[in-house]
């Protein structure tokens, strides 16, 4: 009587295998089939959790042409707008001999397969016939009017294809859907594994890797494929793109989606991920994205990250993610000539990174271990560009440098000729664009002597520029080293705006040799400045046929920068507009 009551309410009777077997023995009744509660469409509700309890959809009748199909074959019809199906009752004679224990067990267990969540279209999903085990149900049903046990079949809605007007809509409907699926992926690790349905044809069309996986010479025949190295959210984003061309990425998933797109050779999705990263690139995440760009071999993204770090070096170094980068990324940054930060700050940032790295490698944060983890990065810090005060207050007392290195650097700051040091003394220039230069002489002659007096020339420009160095003539007696101090002085206030006490080597030719400032010197339009160079060394070449006005025209934009040179008052070691030293000015616009 209990089964008949269930039928009158159009509900399915839930029975466990053990309970049904017991009732069969005591009451000689046929066991009730175990149906799951119907979802919104009268079909099994789904869940992507691979550990969830499996739902059954055994015995659902098909609905082709309005005729019910034999139990054990499903015709899943997800779609929230399609409505429920029709119930079909099948009654057995009370006098019919009950099933054997084996058949009772098969009926009770019904066929189980894990359920999977529907796609982004909101469609509910059903179990496919291939993923379930058919129960032992007779192919021909008795026609006796009397019934002791009744099977209820939920007839799902069919013909979902008719509601999808385009190929894109039909494929989008199949995304993360059990309908017609012929493969499942177990994505993730541990309790986070998700069982995701897919369709071999759709995947092979969108990815050469999937094509080889399913159709290549060593194609897999498995219907379940484990992907422990892929995040479920990233894999779903990949499938979403392959099925519908829709891009679903966010700050939390973009890197894992980029990894997945690269793994399965979907360059279009890679490009969307890179574009997303470009739009969201900031100083506080530049180092983190640079690390990932190098890891995933994305040179364009890496270049943009480096440019951002150049422009916002101080903020990027202060970001929390800076100390998480790897040594190779740190080296790539320290090698750059375009960082906009003083060298003492770079040293401080490198020490912070070394402290974090010693913890990662489980070392004590001693100066020796900090030097050990810094490795080749240490020699890329340009200690000679610091002032002697900056060096004495920081690096000299850090314990990271050896005693010999500290002494040689102090000598470099204080004596001439300067001793050789292992660290780079080439200035960094934080300016963007192309380096420019002008030459103010038309001819080169020999023998220009030096007695400790500065060569000076006054100049002005028509637009704002940044002077980064001078080109100077070298010895007429073959290869020689010179000591030199270069300066840019504001004429009206006699303020030294930039200077560098350094040296250069020449090869005896009449070429000019570059001597650079430690930092760019800003030059404003229509303001008078004095360029000075005090050389210590043998006689050199010098320039003649000087020009009072020299114009530089940018090849790309046609922008003109006009220099006007004038005689500087005082003793200038003979340098003037017509002849002398300082033949070349190196600058950025």
TrEMBL record:
<feature type="compositionally biased region" description="Polar residues">
    <location>
        <begin position="43"/>
        <end position="54"/>
    </location>
</feature>
<dbReference type="Pfam" id="PF08005">
    <property type="entry name" value="PHR"/>
</dbReference>
<dbReference type="GO" id="GO:0000932">
    <property type="term" value="C:P-body"/>
</dbReference>
<keyword id="KW-0963">Cytoplasm</keyword>
<dbReference type="InterPro" id="IPR000210">
    <property type="entry name" value="BTB/POZ_dom"/>
</dbReference>
<dbReference type="InterPro" id="IPR011705">
    <property type="entry name" value="BACK"/>
</dbReference>
<protein>
    <submittedName>
        <fullName>BTB (POZ) domain containing 2a</fullName>
    </submittedName>
</protein>
<dbReference type="InterPro" id="IPR011333">
    <property type="entry name" value="SKP1/BTB/POZ_sf"/>
</dbReference>
<feature type="compositionally biased region" description="Polar residues">
    <location>
        <begin position="92"/>
        <end position="109"/>
    </location>
</feature>
<dbReference type="Pfam" id="PF07707">
    <property type="entry name" value="BACK"/>
</dbReference>
<dbReference type="GO" id="GO:0005829">
    <property type="term" value="C:cytosol"/>
</dbReference>
<dbReference type="GO" id="GO:0022008">
    <property type="term" value="P:neurogenesis"/>
</dbReference>
<feature type="compositionally biased region" description="Low complexity">
    <location>
        <begin position="55"/>
        <end position="72"/>
    </location>
</feature>
<feature type="region of interest" description="Disordered">
    <location>
        <begin position="15"/>
        <end position="123"/>
    </location>
</feature>
<dbReference type="InterPro" id="IPR038648">
    <property type="entry name" value="PHR_sf"/>
</dbReference>
<dbReference type="Pfam" id="PF00651">
    <property type="entry name" value="BTB"/>
</dbReference>
<dbReference type="InterPro" id="IPR012983">
    <property type="entry name" value="PHR"/>
</dbReference>
<feature type="domain" description="BTB">
    <location>
        <begin position="181"/>
        <end position="251"/>
    </location>
</feature>
């Amino acid at each position: 009587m209990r089964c008949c009551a269930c039928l009158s309410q159009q509900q399915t009777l839930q029975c466990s295998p053990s309970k049904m077997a017991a009732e069969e023995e005591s009451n000689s009744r046929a066991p009730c089939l175990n149906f799951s509660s119907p979802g919104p469409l009268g079909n099994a509700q789904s869940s992507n959790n691979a550990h969830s309890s499996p739902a059954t959809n055994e015995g659902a009748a098909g609905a082709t042409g309005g005729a019910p199909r034999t139990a054990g074959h499903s015709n899943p019809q997800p779609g929230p707008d399609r409505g429920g199906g029709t119930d079909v009752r099948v009654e057995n004679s009370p006098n019919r001999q009950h099933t054997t224990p084996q058949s009772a067990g098969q009926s009770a267990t019904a066929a189980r397969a894990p359920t999977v969540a529907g796609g982004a279209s909101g469609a509910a999903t059903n179990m496919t016939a291939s993923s379930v085990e058919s129960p032992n149900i007779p192919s021909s049903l008795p026609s006796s009017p009397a019934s002791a046990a009744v099977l209820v079949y939920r007839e799902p809605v069919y013909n979902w294809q008719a509601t999808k007007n385009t190929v894109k809509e039909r494929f989008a409907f199949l995304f993360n859907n059990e309908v017609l699926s012929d493969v499942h992926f177990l994505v993730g690790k541990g309790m986070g594994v998700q069982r995701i349905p897919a369709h071999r044809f759709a995947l092979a069309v969108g990815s050469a890797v999937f094509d080889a996986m399913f159709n290549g010479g060593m194609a897999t025949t498995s219907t379940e494929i484990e992907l422990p190295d892929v995040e479920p959210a990233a894999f779903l984003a990949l499938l979403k793109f392959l099925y519908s061309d829709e891009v679903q990425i966010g700050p939390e998933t973009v890197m894992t989606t980029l990894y997945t797109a690269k793994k399965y050779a979907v360059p279009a999705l890679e490009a969307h991920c890179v574009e997303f990263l470009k739009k969201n690139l900031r100083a506080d995440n530049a180092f983190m994205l640079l690390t990932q760009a190098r890891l995933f071999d994305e040179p364009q993204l890496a270049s943009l990250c480096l440019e951002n770090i150049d422009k916002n070096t101080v903020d990027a170094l202060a970001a929390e993610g800076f100390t998480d980068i790897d040594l190779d990324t740190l080296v790539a940054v320290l090698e750059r000539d375009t960082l906009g930060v003083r060298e003492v700050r770079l040293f401080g940032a490198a020490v912070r990174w070394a402290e974090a790295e010693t913890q990662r490698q489980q070392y004590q944060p001693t100066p020796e271990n900090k030097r050990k983890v810094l490795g080749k990065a240490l020699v890329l810090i340009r200690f000679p560009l610091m002032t002697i005060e900056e060096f004495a207050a920081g690096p000299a007392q850090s314990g990271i440098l050896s005693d010999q290195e500290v002494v040689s650097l102090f000598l470099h700051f204080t004596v001439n000729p300067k001793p050789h040091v292992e660290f780079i003394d080439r200035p960094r220039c934080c300016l963007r664009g192309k380096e420019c230069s002008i030459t103010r002489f038309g001819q080169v002659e020999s023998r220009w002597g030096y007695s400790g007096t500065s060569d000076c020339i006054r100049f002005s420009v028509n637009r704002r520029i940044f002077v980064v160095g001078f080109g100077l003539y070298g010895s007429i007696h073959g290869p020689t080293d010179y000591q030199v101090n270069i300066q840019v002085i504001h004429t009206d206030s006699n303020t030294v705006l930039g200077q560098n006490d350094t040296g250069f080597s020449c090869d005896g030719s009449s070429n000019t040799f570059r001597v650079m400032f430690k930092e760019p010197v800003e030059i404003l339009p229509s303001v008078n400045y004095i360029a000075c160079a005090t050389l210590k060394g043998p006689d050199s070449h010098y320039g003649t046929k000087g020009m009072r006005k020299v114009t530089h025209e940018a090849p790309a934009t046609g922008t003109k920068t006009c220099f006007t040179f004038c005689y500087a008052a005082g003793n200038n070691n003979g340098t003037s507009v017509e002849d002398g030293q300082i033949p070349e000015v190196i600058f950025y616009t």
